[in-house]
Automatic annotation (TrEMBL):
Domain Putative restriction endonuclease: 28-183
Top-level taxon in the UniProt lineage: Bacteria
Full protein name: Uma2 family endonuclease
Entries under InterPro entries matching the protein: Nuclease_put_TT1808, Restrct_endonuc-II-like, Uma2
């Protein structure tokens, strides 16, 4: 005589962080992020960046890219994971060593050389406060915040558990901003929008 199957307990052995991060990697959309446990993007939820946003990002990327190549790095908008948190970011762009990027599904912030976020009306406070704190906490050595709302650029460095210990700026658009070693270049911000 067959007996009814015992009900299975699905509440044990499931890692909610892993499940959430797995789920967003399989959602439709180019920029699906988890910011403090809230899924942002995917399934048409997030409006694509404006052309001004893209232009601003490209102005910075075009200046950084030749030096990144010299350093054996690539620039891109790949996934950044923040283990033991419900955070998974897709920066406007980051500079990462080519050998780390090869075959990687996601990198950690401390594996980057530079992370760049460009604000939009919908995400300005997230980029200014939340992402800045998390990038520092997880060791991203340089965080460049291009604030299109206030029309300022700030370079944060010296990451620590309580945030970045150094900030160069905010500088109004049009002010040259120096990226330190390993870049050792001055960004022209006159064309930022």
């Amino acid at each position: 005589m067959a007996t009814a199957a015992e009900p299975r307990d699905y509440t044990t052995g499931v890692d909610p962080e892993r499940a959430l991060k797995y789920a967003i990697q399989h959602m439709q959309g180019d920029r699906v992020e988890i910011i403090e446990g809230v899924i942002q993007g995917g399934c048409g939820e997030v409006r694509p960046p404006t052309w001004d946003h893209e232009d601003t990002t490209e102005v910075i990327r075009d200046q950084v890219k030749p030096r990144a190549r010299e350093l054996g790095c690539i620039t891109g908008s790949g996934n950044l994971d923040f283990p033991k948190t419900a955070n998974w970011y897709v920066p406007d762009f980051a500079v990462v060593p080519r050998e780390l990027a090869s075959g990687a599904g996601a990198l950690l912030p401390d594996q980057t050389l530079l992370v760049v976020e460009v604000t939009s009306q919908s995400n300005a406070e997230t980029d200014r406060v939340v992402k800045r704190k998390r990038y520092a906490e997880y060791g991203a050595p340089l965080y460049l915040l291009v604030d299109r709302i206030s029309r300022e650029v700030t370079l944060f460095s010296q990451p620590g558990q309580l945030g970045y210990e150094a900030a160069d700026g905010p500088h109004p658009f049009g002010t040259p901003v120096r990226l330190p070693e390993p870049f050792d270049l001055v960004l022209d911000t006159t064309e930022l929008k």
